[in-house]
Amino acid sequence: MSATAETGTGAFGHPALFYRGAAEYLAGTVPFVRGALAAGEPVAVAVPGDNLELLRRELGADAARVRLLDMTEAGRNPGRIIPGVLRAFADSHPGRPVRIIGEPIWAARSAVEYPACAQHEALINLAFTGRDATILCPYDAGALAPDVLADAEVTHPVVIDGTGQRTSPAYAPDDLVARYNQPLPVPAGAFELADTTDLAAARALTHVRAAACGLDEVRVADVEVVVTELLSNSVEHGSGSGTVRFWGGDGEFVCEVHDLGRLTDPLAGRHPATPYQPRGRGLLLVNQLADLVRLHTGDDGTTFRAYFRA
């Protein structure tokens, strides 16, 4: 498992680490971190809380030299990981190679969340093309389903496990993004405001429905911003109008905007904004505010769906 210590030199690297248990986790991650520190390279770790504490204890005093993030918070919505975690760290060290451990997929991820997680892993390869960075992605081979591990071989060019390091013959990240670009069925009883450009009406209706689902004032305000940004995006960059839908219950609220345009940028909503950028922050803001964002785009149009928990 110590083969991970050798990744991190040269151009972009994106290995997957298949581990079983704490000993294999540490054997695969600690040399990666300490190798970066020995080389004078900035290193960050964004993993679920239990694994974060495991690494913190093992690193001891070295942990103070590492950027540590709980991925269940920083990456709750997979759509915010590239701009808010990975690029945020890499861009803060311009001209220097960086190493990052990112674990965006864990056993408690829901079936609704997983397609967005898998697409995120695939899109890392596009987002970091040409960058001098290595992003190591651990996968709990003892807890995750076989199809999740199979997808990891599609999204990562190199796989590391108890037998060593190997090239993945299944590597085809663009194919995975397309495979999970599936239509998003609308549940019966969803409220619909069809083919509209009326931002004020959409906000007002959203406010009432989100509050009725148990969201507090702060989250209701977040939902209003998301609906406004998505509908504005449809009006300005889509087909000129959008259909707004929302539904929810039991402390969850879901809203979506559909238009007849087709999204051509697979990294839409994942490009970090520059300090002097006057426009183009809408989808980035949607990813920042929502607990989960799902997307479908095709010949029948584009749908952005956002999920919020109370």
Unreliable segments of 5+ consecutive residues = 1-9
* Principal-axis shape: elongated
What's the rounded overall pLDDT mean?
94
Strand content: 15-25%
Q: Which strand order spans the largest sheet, edge to edge or round the barrel?
A: 3-2-4-5-1-6-7
Distance between the termini: 41 Å
Order of helical and strand elements: EHEHEHHEHEHEEHEHHEEHEE
Helix-and-strand structural type: alpha/beta
Question: Care to give the gist of this entry?
Answer:
Helix content is 38%, strand content 24%. The chain has helices spanning 21-39, 49-59, 71-74, 81-91, 114-127, 146-155, 173-179, 199-212, 217-237, 282-289, and strands at 15-19, 43-47, 67-70, 98-102, 133-140, 158-161, 164-167, 191-196, 242-249, 252-259, 292-298, 301-309.
Distinctive features:
single chain; 310 residues; alpha/beta; seven-stranded mixed sheet; five-stranded antiparallel sheet; 10 helices; 12 strands; elongated; disordered N terminus
Question: Can you put this structure into words, describing what you see?
Answer:
The protein has helices at residues 21-39, 49-59, 71-74, 81-91, 114-127, 146-155, 173-179, 199-212, 217-237, 282-289; strands at 15-19, 43-47, 67-70, 98-102, 133-140, 158-161, 164-167, 191-196, 242-249, 252-259, 292-298, 301-309. The protein is α/β, with parallel strands linked by helices. The strands form 2 sheets. Strands 3-2-4-5-1-6-7 form a 7-stranded mixed β-sheet, sandwiched between helices. The chain has a 5-stranded antiparallel β-sheet with strand order 8-9-10-12-11, covered by helices on one side. The longest helix has 21 residues, at 217-237. Residues 1-9 have low confidence and may be disordered.
